[in-house]
């Protein structure tokens, strides 16, 4: 075969490979600092914007006017209107859950709160709005709100809570909600089987502790809860979350102080504290989390975790082996931009919220 023919075959092969690769497809644009997306039964999207607006949008259409009835949010620093989830029985009860930075009565402090509401049939207003959980204590801080919601197969609600940066040491104590994952009923009640219900001095909503700032929380198809959290200048973590366990922050970490230097005693491990399933050094600044059951992208992607990167603006794919050890990691769409949320739609496709670009995009399977 001549050199010219070989070159032509190689070029055609590259073109085919590029054509077959999954691509990003814009679904909604014109958003302002979007944070999360949920999927309405009629095919529309329910989207939160950090400044405090909740909107709906159709694929290819413009975002709606802000939905009325959203409570006041403290849109400062990393705070604002953050995650949103539909109730598993939304088609019947119109119930949604959302979490946000709730201002204190003194207007100087805030904390993460979880609210329940009904979305009107015309999609224009929230009614019966009620805060069912409020993080304690409120703090004068603009950082580390956490704020991801996940509904368990049994209907209980999980909420990830940051340690607000200033409260990092309190992530290790059980008399507060800083650096915790909590579990409550849909009315905000405390389930009787929560791990610290009978522990003197412990807040009964706590499910796990020793977390830093978690912006990824999701159940897999086996009903297991997974979480990721930001480390400081390294040490981002993916964790399998189990009741009552201590995930180490700030006693153990693979990160370091901003500007350099060890945190505390500089420990990576300690008896009684959990090790991450996956760690990232340097940090990718993870946001959004889903484990993909869908076969829409073929067997290579099926069963993988997909995580957005705020720092590098790519989609991280992580596949674990049968023993939950990292088997494969891949960086996809390296120039996409800051990713704030990653969700699987009812169509089995991945949807990404691009914060800086103000867009919702869909990952189109290879053709």
Oligomer: single chain
Number of beta-strand segments: 23
- Give the neighbour order of strands across the main sheet: 1-23-22-21
Helix proportion range: under 10%
Shape: globular
Cα-atom Rg, whole angstroms? 21 Å
Mean pLDDT comes to: 94
Task: Note poorly predicted spans.
Answer: 1-18
Overall description:
The protein is mainly β and 367 residues long. It has a single domain, classed as Neuraminidase, CATH 2.120.10. Helix content is 6%, strand content 38%. The protein is built from two helices and 23 strands. The chain has a four-stranded antiparallel β-sheet, with no helix packed on it. It has a four-stranded antiparallel β-sheet with strand order 5-6-7-8. The chain has a four-stranded antiparallel β-sheet with strand order 9-10-11-12, with no helix packed on it. Strand 2 and strand 3 form a beta hairpin. The longest helix has 18 residues, at 3-20. The protein is globular and about 50 Å long.
What are the defining features of this structure?
single chain, 367 residues, mainly beta, Neuraminidase, four-stranded antiparallel beta sheet, 23 strands, 6% helix, disordered N terminus
